[in-house]
Specification:
70% of the residues lie in helices and 0% in strands. By secondary structure, it is mostly helical. It has two domains: 92 residues, RNA polymerase sigma factor, region 2, helix turn helix motif (Rna Polymerase Sigma Factor, Chain: A, Orthogonal Bundle), CATH 1.10.1740.10; 82 residues, Orthogonal Bundle (Arc Repressor Mutant, subunit A). The protein is elongated, with a radius of gyration of 20 Å. The N and C termini lie far apart (53 Å). One of its GO terms (molecular function) is sigma factor activity.
Amino acid sequence: MGTDPERRDELGAAVRGCAAGDRSALRLIYERESRSMLGVAKRVLHRQALAEEAVQDTFVRVWQHAASFDSTRGSARTWLYAILRNRALNILRSERKTDLVDDFEPMALESGEERADAMVERLSEAGRLRRCLEGLDPIRRRAVLLAYAGGLTHGELAGRLGVPLGTMKSWMRRSLILLRRCMA
């Protein structure tokens, strides 16, 4: 698919178009590569939602950093897939870093559908984690609990709570910062 020199030149031109702010150039890249990129991301991440997140994040990075593309160092396609690979690996690493605190273990969760409030209730009354969680906005507290106790990803949380993926990522980031400050 990407071995044809004319097609490679077209992708390179599209990346340069992105650097100049041409949205149609990004659309061209998306139409040409998104399906293949999704396949690659699924092979790395093994989950559709995470693969879609990686591809979306890749296109955001392509748009933001297209000016850094240097055709003397490789083809545009190689550059695109390097960004995708790095993003997918970062997602894998972040998925493994779910050890905010050890206080979640005593909750003995029975199901992923359990109400977040019930999870908080089972924490020790005097526990610092409980006090810190109760300081969060209820919907954000629920998101944090579903992520850490239920194992849901950002994409799954966004779908379950009916908010855009970017919003969920922001909520989680801000909530975890507040929890870390509170726990410190």
